[in-house]
Amino acid sequence: MKLYNTMARKKEEFVPLVEGEVKMYSCGPTVYNYFHIGNARPFIIFDILRRYLEYRGYKVTFVQNFTDVDDKIIKRAKDENITEKELSDRFIEEYFKDVTALNIRKADYHPRVTEHIKEIIDIIKRLEANGLTYTSGGDVYYDTGKFVEYGKLSKQNLDELEAGARVDVNEVKRSPFDFVLWKGQKPGEPAWESPWGMGRPGWHIECSAMSMKYLGETIDIHSGGQDLIFPHHENEIAQSEGATGKPFSRYWLHNAFLNINNEKMSKSLNNFFTVRDIAEKFDLEVFRLFIISAHYRSPLNFSSELLEPAKSALERLYNAKNNLTYLMNKAEEKALSQEEEEFKKALYEYRNKFNEAMEDDLNTADGLSAIFDMVREINSNVKADSSKEIMKASYDMLMELAGVLGLLYKKEESLDTEIEKLIEERQKARKEKNWALSDKIRDELKAQGIILEDTPQGVKWKRV
Ligand SMILES: [Zn+2]
Fold first, then answer.
1. Which of 46, 118, 171, 224 could bridge 228 with an S-S bond, Cβ 3.0-4.6 Å?
2. CA pair distance 98, 281, nearest whole angstrom
3. What does the pLDDT look like over 102-118, one tens digit per residue?
4. Distance CA 300, CA 260 (A)
5. Global pTM?
6. CA 181 to chain centre
7. What residues does 23 pair with on adjacent strands?
8. Which residues are within 8 A (CB) of 399 and not within 5 positions of it... i.e. 6 or more apart?
9. How far is the CA of 28 from the centre of ligand 1 (A)?
């Protein structure tokens, strides 16, 4: 499989450190609010990367952290007159509700900062021993000037950046790129004991500490939104490699932004949507399909009108699935015809096309097209008098490929026996040319929300 590695600025063949195993870390949310749809993009995309790697037989260990102490959490907890823990517990619970509705699987580990203070202090101690830190104004800083490779991920021209950033330099920092590892306690803020006095961790250090604890000193894939490349991921590299002297992550993956009506999402532009907002108007599976209909490194424009085509696309997939289920329940076992043998081969060809797309830097857009092309073929080739085997082969292939993208996850829609009986009766009436009865049954089903379509391949149904 080829993956675009931000560190190399090109697609590279993916080779994990240990054959057959993948260690993967993705930066998680700060839990002071519901998460917004821009954050949903990396959550969905890297869930699919994990699913695809598992589909290809890798054993994947996936870690995603929760930032449960930071300025925003402290402020909101104060405003609501509750503890930081009460606030973050609540939004972690809400996070899991949203990701479940989006069919994003839980990580193997979801470590929280406040439960890993010891590991964080340990890594700062290692950096201190390596001469990469200094204390100033009660805080411990990373001395980026001492880490010669600083800037290697973002490929920033540090001199230019430094000139631009000069306004930010204050006397406490030696360089504008230096960042806080440990913040001295301020009145009314949560704090822990440390060799540098009471305080709390800076933001970047948690990912280095948690990644190392659960995945070891060198991992295979580190991922996140492109806004994290600088400074967050650059700082994670400085911390992890500064402490261990080993490469931190072999592949760095970053997704492009999600824009809203062609503008950057921001609270000030009033175009800021949480996943919860979208859930009020749309089934979140529609939103999932919308996200994966574009390649993850292309900017994606969102508007509610753009969800409409995703909605009909998802309906096409469910209709195909439901029809195959319906046909399989009626079909008789019989040998595959010559044509069906050919069609079975065609199904494998679609799987190859799908895999080719996914192998090419996780091209979910082309992978999805392969599925839709296959569904079109299934609709015209699988008929009421087809063999049960070809129906099942079509159903299995559809579910296999859609499953890698995490689609078609809603519970099996089975027709009530009563409805099935009505469809049978209507078929019989049509055979006998009893149009009045046939129409009557069709209307009855319509009243129950079942729409029938008479196609050259037999009767098809869908729910409305
Ligand atoms: Zn991180």
1. 224
2. 14
3. 999 999 999 999 999 99
4. 9
5. 0.89
6. 29
7. 61
8. 321, 408
9. 7
